[in-house]
From TrEMBL:
It holds the Pfam family adh_short_C2. This is Gluconate 5-dehydrogenase. Belongs to the short-chain dehydrogenases/reductases (SDR) family. It comes from Cocleimonas flava. GO terms for molecular function: oxidoreductase activity, acting on the CH-OH group of donors, NAD or NADP as acceptor.
Length: 253
């Protein structure tokens, strides 16, 4: 029996697509047959990725936008729907980690972190659910973190936002799964991205973290491909409200 991993005819909207996990999700989903709408702040990066995807034979459009600006949310959603007439899959991947000690967090930095990491994923989903509901099917993939479950130094605001993502994902599932919309989250371990550059720039720290996994290494971005396609496809139609840790067994030890 064939697995239902083919995404032909589906359209995915990916935030934070300029680099790292978001860009890798775009590559994985288009390899599975989806068309993608890429959202991020750096137009040059979006243009480059869109060209890469188009050169591979898939369809890609992009929109440079600042997700922290609430006034742009309706513009993002409207443009995304106009590109291909639909959005079936929402990957809420944009995020920020300011790495501030608890003593140094300000009201402004707290709001910046919670808005981009927690508020934006909900509000974009809420705005796109009616389009998914019309077809009785959709997928929302949030990005949680190791800090959804445990505390890391200089991560109080980030950890609060990612703990919130796990609960938000469950609440989204409760609200929308009856309409055929699956809502899940991935929780990556340590992968080389712009967000984790301060970690990987310290080779001893990166090696120490690798040894804390059950597998014995940190992640490669390609390790995210299978889980991403699974959660975006019909193969996961009976999976909702879950947070999948893709961490090499970091949380198992």
């Amino acid at each position: 029996m064939a697995l239902k991993l083919d995404l032909s005819g589906k359209v995915a909207l990916i935030t934070g697509a300029t680099s790292g996990i978001g860009a890798q999700q775009a590559r994985a989903l288009t390899a599975a047959g989806a068309s993608v709408v890429l959202i991020g702040r750096r137009e040059d990066r979006l243009k480059e990725l869109a060209k890469e995807i188009r050169d591979s034979g898939a369809k890609a459009e992009y929109l440079a936008a600042d997700l922290s600006d609430e006034g742009q949310w309706d513009i993002i959603v409207g443009a995304s729907l106009n590109f291909f007439g639909r959005v079936d899959i929402l990957c809420n991947t944009a995020g920020v980690n300011l790495r501030q000690h608890a003593d140094d967090v300000t009201s402004e930095s707290w709001d910046q972190t919670l808005t981009l990491n927690l508020k934006v994923p909900f509000m974009l989903a809420q705005k796109l659910v009616p389009n998914m509901r019309e077809r009785g099917w959709g997928k929302i993939i949030n990005v949680a973190s190791l800090q959804s479950e445990r505390a890391f130094a200089n991560g109080i605001a980030y950890g609060a936002s990612k703990g919130g993502i796990s609960q938000l994902t469950r609440a989204m599932a409760e609200a929308w799964s009856k309409d055929g919309i699956g809502c899940n989250a991935i929780a990556p371990g340590f992968f080389p991205t712009e967000l984790t550059a301060p970690v990987f720039e310290q080779s001893e720290l990166a090696d120490k973290l690798a040894q804390q996994t059950a597998i014995g290494r940190n992640g490669n971005l390609e390790d995210l491909d299978g889980p991403c396609v699974f959660l975006a496809s019909h193969a996961s139609d009976y999976v909702t409200g879950q947070t999948l840790y893709i961490d090499g067994g970091f949380t198992a030890k």
